[in-house]
Amino acid sequence: MLKKFNFLLFFLTFSLCAEEELEVLLSTKVPLKPLYLTELRIGREQIDWRYPGELRTLLAFDLANNGYSSVTPVRPDWEKKFFWPDPRARFDLAFWSREQVPFVVAVQASEDSFSATAFHIQRGTSKRYPDIPLTGDAPTDRHAIHLLADAIQKDLFGTQGIASQRILFSQRVKNPSGNGSEWLSDIWITDWDGANARRLTMARGYCITPAFMPQKIAYSEDEYYYVSSDGGQTKIFRSSSDGRSNPMIRLRGSQLLPAISRDGKQIAFISDAAGRPDLFVQNLDQEGKQIGRARQIFTAPFATQASPTYAPDGRKLAFVSDKDGTPRIYMTEVKDSRSTRRVIPKLLTRKNRENTSPAWSPDGSKLAYSARTDGIRQIWIYDFATEQEWQLTFGPENKENPSWASNSLHLIYNTETNDVSELYIMNLHQLEPVQISTGFGQKRFPSWETR
Question: How far apart are the first and last CA of the chain?
Fold first, then answer.
C-alpha cells in the first residue's frame, strides 16, 4: 500500500545523518518582560494541593512560552508582600516598581475553584478574573487554564494568546498484525503543550498531513482534513471528532499534500492525475464542496511538485518543485479558471539547494520551511519584505514540517532522526525549542489550529 506514496517520498523522507553539530544559541529579538507568578495560595489546609498545583504549573508554562513574558522564580521574600484572600488589598505598587517587575499574577485555589488576579505595574491597574470551577476532569480544567492564560496575555500585553489552541499531527507506528503495510499512521489531536493527546482515526493504512478546516466552511470547531490511503489510492478526506470521514476531491489518481485557502474558497493539492505529481487547485462552495473540475496550475517536464501553501489572501501559492534540479520553493499566482495567461513561478529560496514543506504565516509576512543545512535539515524563515532567508533552528536533529500558530509568532515542527520523531514548539521572540511530545510512535506533520 505504501507504493501509493512513491512519488512523494523524495520530499518526505531523507537519509538521516548522525554527525554532531555545534548548537548556536541566538539572542532574542524582543526582550521578554519579567512576570512574577505567585505560589499557589490554598484556601483551606485540608485541601489536597496537588491537583490545583498542577494547574498552577500549567499556567506558568503558558505564560513562560507566550513570547512576551519570562516567569520569574518564586521568592519567599516576595511572597510576604501579598495579603490573602484578596491580593489587591494593600498591594505595594512601589515595591514591584523598584524590583523592576512589570507584571504580577497572583493565584489561589479553594476546594472547588481556581482564581487569578493580574497586576500591570506601570499602569497601576489590576484585574481579578472569574473563578474557574474545578471539575476534576483534567481536559476540561486544563482548557480553562489555557483560556485564562490567553486572557491574561491579552490584558497585560495587548496580544491574542494561542495557549487554548490545539494541534493536529499524524503518528506512525509499526503494524502489529504484520499484515499489509509495515507501518500504520493515524491522526491525533493535542493541546499546545502536548497534553490530552487523543487519536482521531483508526487507520487500516496511512493517514497523514492533517489540518483544521477554515472556519468559514467548517461544520464544527473540530473539523479537519487529511490524506488517507485506507481505500487504496491516496485521497483527501474531511472529518471531525465523530469519526465520520468523507472524500473532498473526486479526481482520478492519487491526491495528497492538500492546503485550503483561509477563505475556504479553494483547495490546492498534488495529484498524479495527468501522469506526474503536479500542482492542482479545486474551487469550493460555502460548504467546502467541489465547484466544477479541478485544474492543473503548474507542471514541468520530468519534475515533481509538492507541499502547496496559500498566502493569507488566497491569491498566491508557494510550493516545492525540483524543476531546476533539486527541490526549491517557488511562488505562483493562482489564476482565474478563465485565464489563459501563462504564469512563471518566482524562485524564493536560494541559500540552500534542498528546501521542502513551506508554510505561509497567517499575517503574510514570512514563509517557514525545512532546508538541508550542513547535512542536517533545519527550519528556515523567508521574509517577504526583505526577500532574505535566515536560519531559525540549530542542533543535530533533522527538523521538518513547520506550521504557524495564528499569531504568526509561534511555530511547531517535528524532528526526525534515527526513527524517532517528536514535536517541538518555538516562537520568534525566544528561539528556544520546547519539546511537547514523547513516547511511543513517530509524531509528524503537525498543524496548528487557527482562529
Answer: 36
List, in sequence order, every beta strand (DSSP E) within 384-449: 388-391, 399-404, 410-415, 423-427, 434-435, 442-448
Low-confidence ranges of the chain (pLDDT < 70): 1-30, 44-46, 178, 180, 337-341
What CA–CA distances, in Å, run from 414 to 152, 351, 400? Answer: 29, 22, 5
The C-alpha atoms of residue 334 and residue 349 are separated, in whole angstroms, by 19
CA distance 257 to 265: 17
- The SS3 of residue 198 is strand
Q: Which three cell numbers stand for residue 46?
A: 485540608
Residue 339 is predicted with a pLDDT of 58
Q: What's residue 159's pLDDT?
A: 96
Angle at 101 between CA 98 and CA 107, to 5 degrees: 125
pLDDT of residue 43: 77
The class that CATH gives domain 33-157 is: alpha beta
Residues carrying CATH 3.40.50.10070, the chain:
33-157
Q: In angstroms, rounded to a whole number, what is the distance separating the alpha carbons of residues 151 and 149?
A: 5
Q: In whole angstroms, what is the distance from residue 376 CA to residue 242 CA?
A: 40
**CA 134 to CA 148: how far, in whole Å?**
13
CB 380 within 8 A of CB 392: yes
Q: 138 phi and psi, to 5 degrees?
A: -55, -50
What pLDDT is recorded for position 6? 45
174: β partners: 183
The separation between CA 432 and the C-alpha centre of its own chain, rounded to angstroms, equals 15
Nearest to 16 by CA among 423, 433, 419: 419
| Mean of per-residue pLDDT scores for the chain | 90
Residue type, 287: E
Consecutive H or E run containing 296: strand 290-298
pLDDT value of residue 175 = 84
